[in-house]
Write a structure and sequence with these properties.
74 residues, alpha+beta, two-stranded antiparallel ribbon, 3 helices, 4 strands
Length: 74
């Protein structure tokens, strides 16, 4: 969580993914970064990546249009 604080408003949404019993099975992080190099830098320093907590990382591009019902402006 401390590392995520440093990202500030770059984080659009973050949270745990839960299984049918409500147990955490993973996590999701939706963030805005200027380019792929910034993402690669973040991942190289991200504690869960460095410590091997995350076994699988998927990166997708997303066009965010609404946040909490409001039009999103980057």
């Amino acid at each position: 969580m401390e590392g995520m604080k440093n990202l500030g408003k770059q984080i659009i949404a973050a949270g745990g993914l839960l299984d049918e019993e409500g147990r955490m099975k993973g996590s999701a992080l939706v963030m805005e970064l200027p380019d792929r190099a910034a993402l690669d830098k973040y991942l190289a320093e991200e504690p869960y990546v460095v410590k091997g907590v995350w076994q699988k990382i998927e990166v997708e591009t997303m066009n965010v249009v609404l946040v909490k019902g409001e039009k999103y402006q980057s």
